[in-house]
Amino acid sequence: MVNYRYLGNSGFKVTEITYGNWVTHASQVENDAAIATVHKALDLGITSFDTADTYANTAAESILGEALKGQRRESLEIFTKVYWPTGPKGANDTGLSRKHIFESINGSLNRLGLDYVDLYQAHRYDYETPIEETMQAFADIVRQGKALYIGVSEWTAEQLREGHALAKQMNFQLVSNQPQYSALWRVIENKVVPTSEGLGMSQIVWSPMAQGVLSGKYLPGQPLPAGSRATDDKSGAQFIKSFLRDEVLEAVQKLKPLAEQAGLTMPQLAIAWVLQNKNVAAALVGASRPEQLEDSVKASGVTLDADLLEAMDAALAPVAITDPEETYSVSPKTRV
């Protein structure tokens, strides 16, 4: 079964392998297959599920809600997010204004078929809305019982400090940040992680397998595998392009003997690697087929020894992205 970790310094526990439905539900796989995969996640002990209103333009939330019908609500941890537009992209359909936040939480609850979500997250930082307005809206949503906890996604260290201070003033907690993090993308380690540790916040990390590149299935100098994420624009192909350079793929192949040494598959090694970071509460994994989750959950509870971690670092050091300045380029400077 999957282990649990506390989210930040709260009393709230989440499964350290959390199911995310970003590029699968209502996009990469048919609805019946998506629902079957959610049921497999539950069978394997995953009780935490991450989605967002913008995924498949609201359809991903609807499918997750359908898949979880009949489950005991108290035994689930449901996360969703707000920032990106849904619908016609009107003047107030993007960002973290009070208007957009309240309309978004109400829409998400309706699609998910829930009275509340466990974690509501700011999908990006909004440079065009005063952060005081954003945090007040989140405080009111918590007081109304529509969300139990508040988190953010891809915020910089400075933004985390400012948001955390305002949340404290308004008598609620910021408990988490959701950044990209993998053995190939380590930009949060220098500033975001130490800041979060000091504030009592955890990371819920996305793309622990670097969009699948750390699975080892992409080979240097070879055609892209048919049906893979790299060949399907609906499956986030644009996000994987930066990892598909031959020098990156050659470095990743050096991990194969290390995975064998640890008795793990390459995907398990990648997921276990992010979970060695004590500030990481959960690694988000997706699946287009139920059996993929059977492999992923075996990374839960794995401890990688120091020599193995050092060997992984040595193999990937020439190609891993570590520059903390990359954290400042994620949130759009304008909503348009």
Mean pLDDT: 94
Count of individual domains: 1
Instruction: Please list the strands of the largest sheet in the order they lie side by side.
Output: 3-4-5-6-7-8-9-10
CATH superfamily grouping: NADP-dependent oxidoreductase domain
Q: Tell the overall outline.
A: globular
Protein name: Aldo/keto reductase family protein
Pfam families: Aldo_ket_red
Family: Belongs to the shaker potassium channel beta subunit family.
Organism: Microbacterium marmarense
Give a concise summary.
With 336 residues, this protein is of the alpha/beta class. The protein is 35% helix and 13% strand. The protein has an eight-stranded parallel β-barrel, surrounded by five helices.
Care to describe what's here?
- With 336 residues, the protein is an alpha/beta fold.
- The chain has a single domain (4-329), classed as NADP-dependent oxidoreductase domain (TIM Barrel, Alpha-Beta Barrel).
- 35% of the residues lie in helices and 13% in strands.
- It is built from 12 helices and 10 strands.
- The strands form 2 sheets. It has an 8-stranded parallel β-barrel with strand order 3-4-5-6-7-8-9-10, surrounded by 5 helices.
- Helix 1 (31-43) packs across helix 2 (59-67).
- The longest helix is centred in the N-terminal third of the chain and has 15 residues, at 98-112.
- The chain is globular, with a radius of gyration of 19 Å.
- 50% of the residues are buried.
- This is Aldo/keto reductase family protein.
- Belongs to the shaker potassium channel beta subunit family.
- Keywords: NADP, Oxidoreductase.
- Residues 17-315 form the NADP-dependent oxidoreductase domain.
- It holds the Pfam family Aldo_ket_red.
